[in-house]
Amino acid sequence: MMTLKTTTAPLAKPLLDWYDRHHRDLPWRVSPPMAKRGIKADPYHVWLSEVMLQQTTVPAVKAYFLKFLARWPTVGDLAAAPSEDVMAAWAGLGYYARARNLKKCAEAVANDHSGVFPDTEDGLRALPGIGDYTAAAVAAIAFNRQAAVMDGNIERVISRLYAISTPLPAAKPLMKQKVALLTPSDRPGDFAQAMMDLGATICTPKRPACALCPFNGSCEALALHDPEHFPVKAAKKAKPVRVGAAFVAVTSDGEVLLRRRIESGLLGGMTEVPTTGWTARIDGETSADAAPFAADWQPSGTVTHVFTHFELRLSIWRVAIPGRINGDDGWWEPVTNLDAQALPTVMKKAITAAIPRAFQQSKDG
DNA sequence: AACTCGTGGAT
DNA sequence: TATCCAAGAGT
To answer: Residue limits of the HhH-GPD domain (predicted)?
Structure first.
């Protein structure tokens, strides 16, 4: 007779035991030894780190997290900060809608919740920039709620544990059910973090270290001798290549013409040098005819930048002029102050192509 | 449901 | 070099 598989809930214990020994120490995390001494996670720290970590690697986040925390120690401080400062501090981290929503969320907490984060998944989910994942993660990690946390790491772990052959993203609801069944009432936050650490360090996309995995006696993908086959994903679309131009004008006083992009869409609300009207779907003009003002524009090479869904090749034009010229919009910024601007990486590349040492001229650098 | 939305490191 | 992909959210 066949043995019915027991409920999967008992898998939480070997995972938590593994986590107690092998957890990563991260700046925003209260590690098990600290928790044992009664240290509680700060919801502000948990929320800030979770937003930064959305589609972003741990190494990239660390410095930004520490910088934000030093500059805005509480959610109230962040709520009171000028948006331009927040966008400039976020520059380089990508997905800039996160920064816009971060500010909105901080304001909502400060103004509508007396400066205290909601302590339930539903309450958190209603805030700007907090989706299914982040609501569950903050509820579990900061408030010890038994929430089912599902991110890319956990999708991989679950898809292998149960050898789920349905492609993502269609398989997400099933995977979330599985996670909910596994999540314990005791230490749900550590369980979620343990699952993510496991996915990041053991159950990796390539060459998973199954010999070290606390689930290796239960993993169906390992039993099939092909863990790398999971998760199955839908095919991706090819990235189109778009072209455009960027214009770097420098006065004899060492000022560069900058302007602000519209609030929505690609690089929304960020600062740029004048560029032509390229988008993910439409090529922009590449010649100096499209410059913000007529001048002796000089070609300065091209910059290639790969976004998530398209590749951009920008023709760079530069000109040295005696003094300011009225552009239709924008402002003139000292080259020595470019580091303080909300310049996304693609714009730093464009400026560097025209002014090679532009970002080595900061006042305190 | 399918798109849009950055960046840099690993393989 | 090309591809993947990393603690996803908003529309």
So the answer is: 52-201
